[in-house]
Write a structure and sequence with these properties.
This protein has 309 residues and is of the alpha/beta class. It has one domain: Zn peptidases (Aminopeptidase). The protein is 32% helix and 19% strand. The protein has nine helices and ten strands. A hairpin with a 2-residue loop joins strand 1 and strand 2. The longest helix is centred in the last third of the chain and has 22 residues. The radius of gyration is 19 Å and the shape is globular. The protein starts with 17 loop residues before the first helix and ends with a helix. The mean pLDDT is 96.
Amino acid sequence: MTIPAPYPIGTPGVPWSADEIATWLAKQTRHRSYQQDVLSVIDALRSRYDIVEYGRLNYASETYPLMAIKSREWRDELPYMLVTGGVHGYETSGVHGALRFAEQHASAYEGRINLIIAPCVSPWAYERIHRWNPHALDPNRSFRENSPAEESAALMRLVADFRDSVLMHIDLHETTDSDESEFRPALAARDGVAYEPGEVPDGFYLVDDSENPQPAFQQAVIAAVAKVTHIAPADRNGQIIGSPIVAPGIIEYPMRKLGLCVGITLARYTTTTEVYPDSPRANPEQCVVAQVAAVCAAIDFALADTGHS
């Protein structure tokens, strides 16, 4: 058994102080462009949708407008559907899956739903291919009142006026090899706890809300994605990332208790997708297509199950 080396920042067993966070931040490097990859795509959609700036992040000398894509034909009596991506900026297919859905499929739902797409919730992290924001905070553990993560607080403000009306919310994520090589070790170091190695699932899976489980909804999404990419099997303990499998490719978390993105509304149907781009059986394009398939299946099921189709 290989004993993992201590994380290179901080003292094992001691939570990070401001000094360690500053050291970590100084090591972060910009690898890609939010303007080029995301904002330019959103700008090209202005003739078809309403584009709104729902917040603005100011980090040192850098400013990031937070943008959402909304249905142009907005009516209060229509069901509200929310699609989010890039809550973890390094999870690339979540961002590009949300944008691809907007480009190729969202117009088919015009006049049938009130659609809101926030494709890149964490643009600073997107550019640095990281999980955290510059304060070493995980936005997807920060969706709660008085959130310390501005990415999370801004999205909560966006949906505040209609949070009770949202029918479906799908949040697009990835699970990558870097979860075990970098992000979970960094989390353990930041919090001053021991890092316990885990197993990265090989394939697509979903996270349902244990406080509001919707098994038929989850299974409909799994069935659609299975036509595009493989579904993650259980590990030797019958689990995925430490949680029992409740159905093939499906686990459950208490969304609001953990401060997860899909807990920000009172939606009946919620799910978090997880694709695995590092699998030898998948590729980045396949992962984007899987995210799009998941969004379409989620909307279609919610419409049909509530008699709106």
